[in-house]
Amino acid sequence: MTTPDPRVPTRRDSRPAGAPAPAGRSHTARRPPLLLALFAGAAALLALLPLGYIGVRALERGPAFAWNVVSDHRTGLLLLRSLGLAATVVTACLVLGVSLAWLTVRTALPGARAWSVLVTLPLAVPSYVAAFAWLSAAPALVGFAGAALALTLVSFPYVYLPVAATLRGIDPAQEEVSRALGHSPLRTFLRVTLPQLRPAAGAGGLLVALYVLSDFGAVSLMRYDTFTRGIYTSYRASFDRTPAAALSVVLVVMTVALVFAEARTRGRAGHSRTGTGTARPASDAPLGRLRLPALAWCGAIVTAAVGFPLAVLGYWLVVGTSATWAPATLADTALTTLGVATAGAALTTLLALPVGVIAARHRGRTAHLLEQSAYAGHALPGITVALALVFFAVRYARPLYQELPLLVCAYAVLFLPVAVAATRAAVLQAPPVLEDVARSLGRSPLRVLREVTVPLAAPGIAAGTALTLVVCMKELPATLLLRPTGMDTLATRLWTETGTGSFAAAAPYAAVLILLAAVPSYLLGRHRS
Fold it and tell me: How many domains, the chain?
């Protein structure tokens, strides 16, 4: 019998001998490593903890009572107002984020590197500070218009950052081929570039939508009733938590629907390069007559989002007297804020890593469920998450009650999607063929994760950590409820002073909060530029 020549491939496909399997097939079919799945499951369980709480509370007086709350016409009105506000802000953020990303990455915009840093600085401005600034200058903005304006100006970097990163990672060869075939720049953008931006824009838009649905500060100052304000009012109105819990259930259903819609829109899209060699940098498109309008567009957005709030704070700092300043208290509060936010960002990134890797590299019900679970707490108001953790601590972990670890866990529940989205996008950009090669050399899945996947995705993961640090610094409702006795952050001090009408006394805390949050925002923008 003739022995087959080992040099001749016997497979039925046309791949050369020794070539790894196609990236999409190997990574979507293979199950995630057991240990990685267990860590991702732990993160999902923590994120789902508030859902268990609101489920127990919502059914405390029976399903009929909960249904009466949910089916009430006022609940329907809150639903329409919340969805309308989210849709408006997401649409505006997509326009701002995509246009700014294209101008700063793919055009010959003067000072593009500086603009790419400046447009990330709105991340440092809390929504309640932006709302206060605009209300103090234009009281007529109260209501929907003011809430939409304030939330848009602080949220569009969530779209800009992933879209700009994707534009830098896309190989320009496809666009050049399109233009060589006679397609116009606009048609090339719509048919070639935009589909590759869809996963990044969708992830950014999802974060914006969840941020809007969970916002409390801006809508409260603008006196615009949404689910978050309705839940807060219900909590304050009585000791009965059932109506507020029932409203929270509706908010969770909205969150699941948004995550599902974003996942369907994203599909199996990815943008990693599978070829060999080094991608050539894209040539900057000349702006021509659009140069001055482009500069005016960037300048107007940065001025409205950053310059105007800083000008208002400067006014209150000048109006204030030396009696409103307490340097020692201010410094101590700033250090406390930085320490707590750093701990929250570290825990959140650690929990997000396995979820983001599984979401990027594996398909199926398990991966989809883990990713959806991670988003569960993000749309819940901070007060709901805080009360859920208090309920858990009092009944099952008494030593954690009114201790710092409980507050850090609240940050992880609230902002896990921020880190998951960044991790998933970073892993998607890492060529999966390198992981296949490492496995073919005998590396275990966890070793491949440690030695190949994480190092390749490290810049994106670090960017997600910086973004998480910023939002932890600005978080207000959960911090108010869960902070240990005697501990204040810049956000809680700012809210306390603003609530008593002491705007001049609140200005130093707002200024320092923006300054601290601006540092990681600046580094984030500089890294992306």
Answer: 1
